[in-house]
Amino acid sequence: MPHPNMMGMGGNPHYAEGGEADKYNIRFSDRTIRAAFVRKVFFLVAIMLGVVALMTAIPFFNHDTKLFVARNMGMYWAAYGVFFAVYLALMCCESVRRSFPANIIMTAIFTLAVGYMTMMITVHHNVVSVLLTLIICTICCGSIIIFSSQTKYDLTNMMGIMFILSMCLLVFGMVAMISAIFFHVRFIYMVYAALASLLFMFYLAIDVQVSFTSKAYVSVCCWFFK
């Protein structure tokens, strides 16, 4: 027979457990706690971005490192494999992203993999192009974060539209690749890059609003990075 304290309204033995969950949800919905959670998310994202930026800058200060990174494409694909595996583990395995310190270790590996891939891409460009890209990306992302955190519109309901736009961009990317290879139409790459940047700005705005309702800060940080 269930303990009397476990018997809630209507004699439901699970009332106490549900009550604890309700109390947790009420506490987590408190504005002060939500604000602290969001600060933790953005603080962790800032650290991850700082590590990636530092790794990206290393080849421009050390010529030997730049040559090593540029000549070893195998390490790029290895880093991509690590990135994809860790991302799936953090997104699909709740026991991984909610257990400490496993979630921090996996996030660190995830950040290093992204940093190496970014470093591999930037070594094929000059420092001016990389700095211009950094400035443009910083301004755009900062503006999107401010807008999505202050607007009254719920952007999280637009995931269906975003999926359709993503499929259209995927098809356009295939057409752009075929046009560049067989017909030498190079300018279409710029159009594709502009459309992709615009689409992922929308994704960033949605991710920011998702962070206001999510309860797992590690997964939210990975959403920002994906």
Automatic annotation (TrEMBL):
<keyword id="KW-1133">Transmembrane helix</keyword>
<feature type="transmembrane region" description="Helical">
    <location>
        <begin position="41"/>
        <end position="61"/>
    </location>
</feature>
<comment type="similarity">
    <text>Belongs to the BI1 family.</text>
</comment>
<dbReference type="Pfam" id="PF01027">
    <property type="entry name" value="Bax1-I"/>
</dbReference>
<dbReference type="InterPro" id="IPR006214">
    <property type="entry name" value="Bax_inhibitor_1-related"/>
</dbReference>
<keyword id="KW-0812">Transmembrane</keyword>
<protein>
    <submittedName>
        <fullName>Uncharacterized protein</fullName>
    </submittedName>
</protein>
<dbReference type="GO" id="GO:2001234">
    <property type="term" value="P:negative regulation of apoptotic signaling pathway"/>
</dbReference>
<dbReference type="GO" id="GO:0005794">
    <property type="term" value="C:Golgi apparatus"/>
</dbReference>
<dbReference type="GO" id="GO:0016020">
    <property type="term" value="C:membrane"/>
</dbReference>
<feature type="transmembrane region" description="Helical">
    <location>
        <begin position="100"/>
        <end position="121"/>
    </location>
</feature>
<feature type="transmembrane region" description="Helical">
    <location>
        <begin position="159"/>
        <end position="181"/>
    </location>
</feature>
<feature type="transmembrane region" description="Helical">
    <location>
        <begin position="73"/>
        <end position="93"/>
    </location>
</feature>
<feature type="transmembrane region" description="Helical">
    <location>
        <begin position="187"/>
        <end position="206"/>
    </location>
</feature>
<keyword id="KW-0472">Membrane</keyword>
<feature type="transmembrane region" description="Helical">
    <location>
        <begin position="127"/>
        <end position="147"/>
    </location>
</feature>
<dbReference type="GO" id="GO:0005783">
    <property type="term" value="C:endoplasmic reticulum"/>
</dbReference>
